[in-house]
Amino acid sequence: MALRNYETVFIVSPVLSEAQYSEVRDKFKKILEQNGAKIINDENWGLTKFAYTMMGKQSGFYTLLEFQAAPQVIATLATEFRRDDRVMRFLTVSLDKHAMAYNEKRRSGAFKKKDADTKTTSNAVESK
Q1: What would the pLDDT profile of 38-55 be if each residue is shown by its tens digit?
Q2: What is the DSSP string of 9-50?
Q3: Which of 11, 34, 42, 62 is least surrounded by Cβ atoms within 10 Å, i.e. has the fewest?
């Protein structure tokens, strides 16, 4: 069966230590690999404050996983997310060719602004 491209973001409870957080991330990466998925990108977005309270918490650890997998793997992954009390929320989406192209550019740093570009732009605005 053909592999499809997916991206999942999940939020882990902020009461965990860095080691426990790494353990949770590794658990879900291992689940994907055991089910034949190929992990393309793994990003730790760190501890981030929420706009509103979620499950009585004000913040959480965000993780993004981009991977290729068979469609039935998504159901297994969702079940494991729901079973783990440390995971507060998760969202998995299927990526089309445009999203894949965007993610490739984002990973290569095409959208990051350099300090020199920012200063030049701000000077040009001030001079008008």
Answers
A1: 999 999 998 999 999 888
A2: EEEE-TTS-HHHHHHHHHHHHHHHHHTT-EEEEEEEEEEEEE
A3: 34
